[in-house]
Specification:
InterPro entries: BacA/B (IPR007607). It comes from Candidatus Falkowbacteria bacterium CG10_big_fil_rev_8_21_14_0_10_37_18. The chain is mostly beta strands and 136 residues long. Helix content is 4%, strand content 57%. The longest helix has 6 residues. It is globular. The two termini are 17 Å apart.
């Protein structure tokens, strides 16, 4: 489902990269694509896209247009458009998304809420432990 080359195609022009050996704390807000391979604590918001790599450990709320997660996130996630959760992902927090795909083996411990453009309809799914979830 997730070919690494395809996953990263939209991130080739990333504005910010937090490498695997980097640990940062703070509240980050931007407009460009962000790649996180290291450790981040605080909050993270962009008008574009966020990629959380396999080795990444994030303790923060995340908000972006598209979000791809293959690492660990402890905090709430809001993907206004599309959320892709890879098989190595570990999510501990509530998740809001426009569209979602989840690979088998991903761990999600929190509430999933589907939102549409007018935010009037919300579909809630409670998850515990390992989950495989597909959108309608």
């Amino acid at each position: 489902m997730f070919n690494k080359a395809n996953r990263l195609e939209k991130f080739k022009d990333a504005e910010t990269v937090i490498g695997a050996s980097i640990k940062v704390k703070g509240n980050f807000q931007g407009q460009g694509n962000i790649i996180i391979e290291g450790v981040l604590e605080g909050s993270l918001k962009t008008d574009s896209n966020i990629f959380v790599g396999d080795q990444a450990k994030i303790t923060a709320n995340i908000e972006a247009s598209d979000v791809i997660i293959t690492g660990e996130v402890r905090g709430n996630i809001k993907a206004k458009n599309y959320l892709a959760i890879g098989d190595t992902a570990k999510i501990f927090g509530d998740v809001q998304y426009g569209e979602i795909s989840v690979e088998r083996g991903a761990i999600i411990n929190g509430q999933l809420s589907s939102i549409n453009e007018d935010n009037k309809h919300t579909e809630k799914i409670k998850t515990e432990d390992k989950a495989t979830i597909s959108s309608k």
